Sequence to fold (836 residues):
Amino acid sequence: MTTQDILRAARAVCPVLRCADREQKDAALLAMADRLWSEREQILAANAQDLEAASTHISGVMLDRLALTEDRIAGMADGVRQVAQLPDPVGRALRTVERPNGLVIRKISVPMGVVAIIYESRPNVTSDAAALALKSGNACVLRGGKEAFRSANAITEAIRGGLEQAGFPRELVSLIQDTTRQSAHELMTASGLVDLLIPRGGAGLIRACVENATVPCIETGTGICHVYVDVQADMDMALNIIENAKASRPSVCNAAEVCLVHSAAAEQFLPRLRQRLTEDRAAAGLPPVELRLDQRAAGIIDGVPAGEAGFDTEYLDYILAVGVVDSVEEAAAHISAHSTGHSDAIVTADPDAAAYFAAMVDSAAVYWNASTRYTDGGEFGLGCEIGISTQKLHPRGPMGLEELCSYKYIITGSGQVR
Amino acid sequence: MTTQDILRAARAVCPVLRCADREQKDAALLAMADRLWSEREQILAANAQDLEAASTHISGVMLDRLALTEDRIAGMADGVRQVAQLPDPVGRALRTVERPNGLVIRKISVPMGVVAIIYESRPNVTSDAAALALKSGNACVLRGGKEAFRSANAITEAIRGGLEQAGFPRELVSLIQDTTRQSAHELMTASGLVDLLIPRGGAGLIRACVENATVPCIETGTGICHVYVDVQADMDMALNIIENAKASRPSVCNAAEVCLVHSAAAEQFLPRLRQRLTEDRAAAGLPPVELRLDQRAAGIIDGVPAGEAGFDTEYLDYILAVGVVDSVEEAAAHISAHSTGHSDAIVTADPDAAAYFAAMVDSAAVYWNASTRYTDGGEFGLGCEIGISTQKLHPRGPMGLEELCSYKYIITGSGQVR
Fold:
């Protein structure tokens, strides 16, 4: 089937979900989870083929992302079961007004329709995305990376088996069989067939989608996240937060890339930061963090010069840019100029500085005295997420089930005319 | 100044509005309204030049859209004052959760930033858009049509005078001085400088924006709206609603273009519809409505054959396509295939048919026993609107002040790390 055929088939079946109730959708999710587990041998066999084909040309880290085990499949099935536990995001009355003329206007959450997801080599995205789409009443059309195609296809077949078993059409979840650029471009430009396009992956994929999409597209995930250490910061708290934000998982989008320090605290703080992120970590057998310094920071501690692009780079690695500023105003202005609008934090005991920072830093998540690593659907209490939106057109921030819904107005009258 | 310069200037000043409170914004709105009135002579003089230049090549209807009078300027000023009466949409706590780890996560409404609006020849859009943008905390960059440029420029100058008088920077409201396609294209592709692009105008303008925009863009306004007359409809109510939906103002997007009638009611209903929309209107001195019929309707009443495109045309005129269907299911399926997702109505006394129709018709506004003409910010109780979104990525339907805001999460901790 061509991409257009698959999209048309998805579009044809998505009305079934407009009327499906929570019990039916949850039953399908449980059947999908059971099938993932009962078909684990087929999935592992397909994954072994993917790994063998990829082993000649991708790195060890990438191979680890691609690899499945029984445990990982069990984890995927559990993830699908957890989505079944979450409340139904569809059909909620978001607002009801009765107008003076007697019209009753209800704003009701509804599915988007057909959601397309372009992703890369993590096979578990296949089942995560399918589960979130189904629960939010959407048909989904998936287009994964070439390296993971056989794995994604086996997972999709298991999921479609579960759908069928629960009485839903298989076409609610589809995987594009063509993994060339052509199919991605077809999804981006399928006006009238795709209600929402979500890219999940690296900056290049996201940029390609945002620049080429003529269908509604969510910009996700690039995170140049900042931690600003104010003059009134608790220094121990600041060290904990920066080490966590930078080094607990440097490859993810909510990891910090930049630390800004107030000049009145810098003489005292920067040597401790260096000690904590380099010597202490090395002594504990952890990867040390390389510091890339602006001129003022380089006057206080040793490190590599940050250079032109040093404060505009998503390192996704054990590298932290460090700069000195003279005020919370200067910190906020720096962040406005350099942040990707994902997650930025202030560490301070001063509520006025925190309030100013929260008002002026225009990012999806602004933290006061906590690590940027909390920007995550699960950590926000959404139960799950399909990505982190870094745009301001709704939805913004972690996209859980509610963010995968749109709304409509249902207006009840008794013959009113204008 | 180039388009880029104007956008950069707008971007530089928009942080001012992140901290502005309601009183400051409302004072600026009142000053803007006063200036519109006190500078009415300059505005009328500019408008006279526009009218003279346009009179050689645009129609009477278009000239009327373009023309300003003292009354119309007073109306524009009143519109701005009404926006001052509306509640502040910025800074609302949309949700607050406290997580088990002690983090307090608040979801707060915030301005979008820089909103660009591309519109055509109605001069009043200039002041409407500026007022809505200011109240919602946004800087706005306006790009109007060539025919109305002098009028829009005079209005913008008055507004900027009011801003300055209230202590705000003039750059919060700007009019692009170049009215060629080039400037529109620059706005559509100003990634990083435009947070939201809103086209207001005809289908061609909207399509150009949606297809070419690399900045977040709202699809607005095209309305192929349906009224379905069910077998259990009150026939008098149905006639009232259809005449109102079609003929009270046929040039607007919430006017109906298509009437579908249940086959069991058609023999009785269609002759009355024809009588009401043609003979009765002509007798009352009103423009009669031309009926364009499908085959089954043509077997019952006289009219022009609808032809291939007859059910896919936004006539914006005294023309109504009329078709016969066998059930509410067939009506909903027809609407799914042909509606632009704006506003569709069912007339019926049967609550089950109404519930089915409301669930299955995936349009921004679905009416039961009321005219589609109510899809409007004022009629919905939003106080005002900047357009009607026909897309499903939020916002959808009438876009009032709340829909001109985004949100951010503000997270307060006590040193939490993951």
Summary: The longest helix of chain B spans residues 263-283.
